[in-house]
Give the backbone structure.
Amino acid sequence: MSNKFGSRPDLHRIHEALSKLFNTISKEPGKRGLVFEISEKDKIIIFSDQHKGARDDADDFTLAEKNYLQALEYYNASFFHYINLGDSEELWENLLESVIQHHKQTFEREKLFIHRNAFTKVFGNHDLYWDNDPLAGFNLNRIYGKKIPIYEGVILKVKLQHKVLNIFLTHGHQGDLQSDGNWFSKWFVSTIWAPLQSFLKINPNTPAYDNQLKTMHNSMMYSWQAEQKDTALITGHTHQPVFASLTHLERVYLKLKNATIAHDQPVMDKLNEELKKRVKKGDEVPEFKAYKPGYFNSGCCCFSDGDITGIEIENGMIRLIKWSFQKSGDPERVLLEEMKLADLLDAI
C-alpha cells in the first residue's frame, strides 16, 4: 500500500540524480562519498536494507538477525571491508532510541569493522536521519564509540591490467518520489502503515530473488548504468537481488531460451520444471534484448524467511551470496552467482 500510494520512480529523475552524485564523488571525494582505489586482492562485503526496528511485529530484521550476526563474524575474521549500503535502521517507523535499545548486539558486531578502519556507512531513505539531523554525530558516537562519517555513495576503482573498472555504490532511492521527500508517503508509512503492519503481523519482504522479474525501479537503475563507460552500479533499496543485470527468474528464462535454440531437451525439461514452481499462471515472459551485465542489487537483510543477501568482491571476483538457515538451524553462506571482474569490465 505504501509503495502504491507514495512511490513514483521516474526515469529522468533517477538518471539525473545518479549522474550528479557520481560526478560529485569523482570530482570532490569526501564531500558526498568516498573513492577507494583497490586491487584484486582487496575484500569487500556489501549488505543493505536491514531495517532494524524495535523488535516488535513490525521489525522485519528480527528473523534475519542470526544470519546477519554470523555473516559479520565471518567477514570480520576474514578481513573484509564492510560497506553498509543504507536503510540499516528503520527510522520511518521507529524512534532511534528504540532501535539502539533493541539491537545492541548487531551494533557491537558492526563496531568490530570500525576498530579495523574497515567500515563505510551509506545512508538510505529510511535512515536519512544520519545525513540531515544535527544530533546524528552524537548518536553515532553513542552507538559505535566514534563519530563515523556518513556518505551518500562510494566509488571503487579496480585496476585490471591496463584499464580501470569503476564500481559505483549508492542506496538507490534516487529519483523515487517516496524517498525524495514526498510528505504524504512519509506520513502514511509512519502513521498508518507501521501500526497496521505490526497489528496484522505483515512482513512484505518476501524472497524476491526466486520469483520475480526486475522491478521498474531496478530497470531504471540498469538503464542508467548501461549508458556509462567502464562503470558498474550496485544499489539496494528495492530488496530484490540482481546479479549482472538479471534476477534469478530472468536467468532461468534466458537459459531456457538458449536451451531451446540448441534443442537441448533434457535442459529444457529441467528449466520448465523449475518455472512451474516459481511462475504463476499468466505471468509475463520477459523479452531479452542486448544488455550489459553491469547492474547489481544487494537485495536485503530482512527477508521473511530469515535469509539475507549481499554482494562480495574478492580475489578479482564479484559474487551474489546469501546467508540462510540450514536444516540444523545454523546460518550458512551460499554462493548464488559469480563472475570475474575482468569479464565484467570487458562486457560493459
In short: The first helix runs from residue 2 to 6. The longest strand covers residues 331-340. The CA atoms of residues 20 and 26 lie 10 Å apart.
